UniProtKB/TrEMBL annotation:
InterPro entries in the cross-refs: CUB_dom, DUF7805, LDL_receptor-like_sf, LDLR_class-A_CS, LDrepeatLR_classA_rpt, Non-NMDA_GluR_Accessory, Sperma_CUB_dom_sf
Leader sequence residues: 1-46
Domain CUB span(s) in chain numbering: 86-207, 249-425
Cystine crosslinks: C48-C60, C55-C73
Name of the protein: SFRICE_029490
Gene3D superfamilies: Low-density Lipoprotein Receptor, Spermadhesin, CUB domain
Pfam families associated with the record: DUF7805, Ldl_recept_a
Classification lineage: Eukaryota, Metazoa, Ecdysozoa, Arthropoda, Hexapoda
Amino acid sequence: MSRAVSVHGAVLQEAAGERARRPRAMWRAALALAALVALGARGAAGGCGVAEFACRSGACVRLDAYCDGEAQCADGSDEPAHCSVCNRTYYGRVGVAYAVAVRSAPRAPFLCHLTFTAGGGAHGDLVQLAFDEFRVGRYEPGALDGCPDGYMQLSELGRPFTGGSWCGEADGAALYYSETATVTVSVKLFRARLGENFGFRLRYKFLAQRDAVVSVPYEAGTTYRWNGCRFGAMEAPLERGAVSPGTYCTRTYEECHRKPCRLQSPNYPGMYPRYRLPAWRAASWVLALILMFRTYRNRNVTCYWSLRQKDIPTCKHAMISVRQEHSHKMQIKRSISMASLNKTGRVVRAWRECTGERDRLIFYDGASTDDPVLVEYCGGDWLPRVTSRGPEMLVAFHSSPFSAPLRPPAPAAPLRGFELDVDVVFADSDSLDYASSKSRLSIHYFTITILWIIDDREARRCEFHVKASSSEEETNTTIAGSGRGRRGKLRAPAHTLPPNTTCTWTFHGRPGNAPRLHSPATCSDVRMRSPLLLSAGDLVWIYFSSFTQYSLVEPRRIESAEREEEGGAGATRPRSGRARPAAGACAVELRIWDGGGADEAGARALGRYCDAAPALCARAALANATRAPRPCAPPDGYVSAAPLLSLAATSRPGTATHPLEFALHYEFVDARLEGAPLPDDGRRPRALPSECARWLTTPGAFASPRNALWFGRGGARRLRCVYRLEAAGARVALDLVSATFGREPRCVTRPDALTGRLVCAPDPLDARPEDADVVDEGLVDFDGDDDTPLRVPHLRIYESPWPGYRVPVACICDNSSAPLRLESGGGALELELVARALAPAEDHRHVQFRGTWARAPAPASSPACATRRRLPPPGTRVHLLYPYSGNRMSECGETPFLLEARGNRSVFLRVWGEELPLTGGAGGAGEPPPCATTNRVLVYEAHSARLLRVVCPATGGRALQLFTDEWWGRGARPGALLVVWAARE
């Protein structure tokens, strides 16, 4: 066991003359004496080398044989009476280990200088010292004069004198590697106390700079080798920085993206020197106390490493990153009492644990000590990655003024010091990965404003503003485009955040009219967490695919990245937004607002999470080129009720020792809807969601909904939108400009040989895998009629002179049928977009339609076709002609006749002609039916628009007679039929 030891960092004010000497005077005396001894030895030696001792007999022995207690010369001239190993200069040959020791306890006061010089070439370039025994003076913890009885100091020729000292007692070997060719070991003993043993023994070796490799025989039969060298391999040298003139270890590093830069402790890989400031003398005790306080407070300030990246590629932003993952390269002194290695796990000592007796590294987020402090590190098994926000970083190394050559016990290697790896991280200058000085950047289709506020040396806040582009810009891109201006993914800042930093992300959608909130009764349909905005603006939708925060200092780990397996049975529910810590303040706090934040009027809190994760959609992180998990839905995240959403993440300990990582997906949802809400009369199939039933009375351009939350990519499974285009007293002229129904439509649009109208002919109904889970009974007749339901997305167009009654005009289901022009016979058309099984990867860009409509004049002789063709009971006889202008009843063209019974009566219809067989579903495109004309009489069930009969008209002969269903006791609704006179010739 080693007793407590220390290094004294102030010049002791000695009473004896020996203690009053200044280091420079001691250097001069030592060098002069060493030169005289060396010259005398060389003169007497004749043929002996500089690394040998010349015996009187002319024989040559090793230089360390002098006064080692054993006679190596035959005449005993290497062991003269009262000899001493002190005040001598020692040379040697490369690769040979030498030893020197003070064998007997000296009398106080005692001063001993041992100078070791590498002579170059075969005599080496650097000096390696291994302290095998060290018992010098004593250490008084907490005292300003920590080494009152004596200490050891190290100094190198040509380098500033550090003045730090080692004292106390320690066992084992500790290594020291010089930076220059000459190093002097000075041992001073001022007084000897009873019971204090003195011992000082070391080994030294001279190394070639190209072979600066540690190879130390630590114990008998044991050799430790440092795999690597201080300067790197010959073919790949390390960049150790340029030494600032007049300093001991302050260095400047530049352009570390081209070369491997390493921050090495002084004299790495050996123990590093101690540092001190000069002691103060004062005439009055008040001034003395002031100066002593200033000295104690500032005595640790020593070395600075300035990292700078000047060469930055165009459109890139540079950040400096420093780290060290290997524990054997992080041998920084922690404290006297914490020197033991009896521990488990990887630990990090930082901030409050960096007391006055510990060495430390301080990382500044910039080139000056006035910049924010990223972390204050004072020991551990590794150094977590520390990254600056810009192209400059300042690293300060402060060593405590007192220590001993501490080292781990065997079998650990006796290496000391640290080496840090430097990387240059480049990010896109227009990315959201970093916060910089106040700037405004334009990024493709959206704008980001980034603001960093610095106050009193601390980065108080970083702000990111993400502004949406218009949805038209996204629509003009290709269907396979990324839509970058409307959605994206962002992560926590790639750089380290100082303590007490709050980063905010504000998402600015395109504003619209004053919002009007709908009833939340249909939230289960669209799976919305918050009310939906019915205005000409955007909503903001965000969700997290991962969120992790944990402490590297605390023994416990907070891992909050929840997993959610696909399938539903094992899925975990999101944590509540009211999570609170058991005690104390939050280390990491996340807050989300529907609005501009805590200080904005009208902002509504969506969640606050204290050391906990928000709602997660972890399955989104599983997506790759071959895996497409179920899409995330609004309950997995957050949806605003206005075009503004903000979130703030606060890190109180800083992210260097408490990492915060998350992946957030955001999207600006276009909530604009055409026209006004269409009232529900109870006759029309309901829209899903209900807001998708629209009533358009003003001619112009229109489009299907662009709300991504209503489609598969937003978590929805089915969709039905109804658009009613109504022109009172006129006809509706519709131009369908474009329509798409998925990336791979499984349907074609073709004319029906039976009716002459466009119908949808889907592929065979053997369902694709994505359709296999559609078992909802509500989908049996999702199209709203009794025909065979279409599983593919499609658009139906209906003639609807009266609300609640309509007949199909066309059905479109492929991506090549537009443009298409249609004109109603009456005053209204209805368009119904239906998708029974939305594809998970598709949205409003893949299933959509766009068009324009205008008012067309009605026939001058028959302006009220809808009124004229609604035939009241008890009945009448109608004679139809073509051209339609042949009589008044035919002038309304293909506007349907409405035959509606009243009370408990039924409708009876007789049509002269031949009934044609139905082809068994929409889309029949077989051989033309046996009919002499292309004219048709089409009979539909009025409530469902289901085709009942197709008649080939004739003036006499056979007749078709038809009753409505309630006549046969099958119908539950009043009897009604729609009859269309579709004439072509």
